[in-house]
Amino acid sequence: MPSYQFPDDFQWGAATAAYQIEGAASEDGRKPSVWDSFSAIAGRTLNGDSGAIACDHYHRYESDVKLMVELGIRHYRFSIAWPRIVPDGRGSVNEAGVDFYKRLVDCLIRHGITPHATLFHWDSPQALEDQYGSWRNRQIAHDFAEYVSAIVSRLGDRVQHWMTINEIPCFTHLGYSANQTPPHAPGTRVGSSKEVWQTSHHALLAHGLACQAIRAASPGPCSVSLVDNIAVTVPITESEADIAAAQQAFPHCWLNGGIVFPALTGAYHAGFLEQLGSAAPEIQTGDLEIIHQPLDRLGLNIYTGTYVRAIDQAPGYECLDLPQGYPRLHMPWLNFVPECLYWGIRHISETVGRPDLPIWITENGCAAQDVLDAKGEVIDTDRILYLRQHLRAAQRAVAEGYPLKGYFVWSLMDNFEWAWGYDRRFGIVYTDYRTQQRIPKASFGWYAECIRQNRVV
After folding, report:
1. CA-CA distance, 94 to 148, in Å (whole number)?
2. E strand or H helix at 281, and its extent?
3. Would the pLDDT of 131 be above 80?
4. How far apart are CA 48 and CA 55, in angstroms?
5. Is 1 among the domain residues?
6. What is the CATH number of the domain that holds 227?
7. Residue range 396-425, pLDDT digits in tens
8. Residue 107 neighbours by CB distance under 10 Å
9. Residue 363 designated active-site
10. CA angle in degrees (0–180, nearest 5) for 143-148-152
């Protein structure tokens, strides 16, 4: 029987995001983000929920870090709220906001946990939306780089591992739309698909300028990465033909050819640009050089995948619909395709052509229909099933020599799930939002045992 063992230096961690857990939305100089404003619009989030209080992590971080110690992780991925650091998006730095992250990081380090800081996880300052329309304007890339310089120069003596931006597609192509009101903040309708693609191009520019800013501002050695939620094409059989079809489909699946390809290769995928036609963004001279910064690692957020097979007509592949009754977790898009972790990693090395680039799974997990039983426990065996099968796929990638170096479960605790409010629970710790009590679920103990044994149990 396979042991599903990981290398001794494999990094086990957990991940969160600022707006989803911190709360304290108007404390210590923080000003509104686009998510504060979006959540205040009737009907935009389920039950009118917002992140104003969330998990109150801002006040409870010390006890949350103790949970991490109990779990056994040595790596924690969190995000820094731009509106806490530069409340107006540009200009003066709010040192009280910086001090919170200093306290958090110091607490992590005292407990032997390495901090991994994401500099942007969707909560851009509302002031920049009011001033020039956020990601519709190239100026945001420069303002983001200034904010990055400010926080890295202040935290770089404590934090070595920096992630620039989390999931560009979600706050651009799910936040802007030409023909409908988009589901994500700031929920902006624009005039054309080209304008939507311009927002993601500006986000790529922000990533590139942030890479430069991190390396210029860091007082010591640092590691720089991007976090992308690639769409993963999975061959329905591992025949030579179906593998080739999945690789052929990968640049054309969702936004891959226009996000991960320019970031990692310095060019939008040629076939993808042709597919976009007049919707392709305007690319100014020098943009691609800025976007294509050297990375020390790549973070992949992977939850599901799309099955693909070879066909005998153009384009040579077919993306397959899933049948009615196919297993799914507690989100409409969260189909159970555990091979996605293996193929996502393999596609970066082979399909994108970056076998040199170390990879971390920076998010993987699932929403489940968690309830407290009569004993006050959450026995989330569905989540354990999901995580076990995905981690087996990750271990396969390691065993075959692909450069997977670490894994961060999403998420440490139940939290504000964006437009779904508090209805969907992704945590391995149950959050009672009324009392702010934290209750480790069965999956918490299971994951702790994986970490303890350094293998999939």
Report:
1. 13
2. none
3. yes
4. 16
5. no
6. 3.20.20.80
7. 999 999 999 999 999 999 999 999 999 999
8. 17
9. yes
10. 155
Would you put residue 318 in left (φ > 0), alpha (ψ -120 to 50) or beta?
Answer: beta
Question: pLDDT of 341-351, one tens digit each?
Answer: 999 999 999 99
Which residues, listed in sequence order, are joined to residue 5 by a DSSP beta bridge?
A: 455
Please count the CA atoms within 13 angstroms of the CA of 119 that sit on its side-chain side. Answer: 34
Q: How many helices (H) and strands (E) would you count in the chain?
A: 16, 15
Three-class DSSP category at 355: coil
Set 129, 339, 363, 417: catalytic member: 363
Sign of CA dihedral 8, 9, 10, 12: positive
Domain residues for 40? Answer: 11-453
Is 201 a member of any domain? yes
List the structure tokens of 446.
């299971």
Q: Which positions ≥6 away from 130 have C-beta within 8 Å?
A: none
- The type of residue at 269 is H
Is there a domain that residue 5 lies in? no
Type of residue at 440: P
What are the residue ranges of helices labelled H in 292-441? Answer: 340-346, 381-399
The total domain count for the chain is 1
Whole-prediction pTM: 0.98
Catalytic residue among 22, 167, 339, 417: 167
- Decide if 6 is inside a domain: no
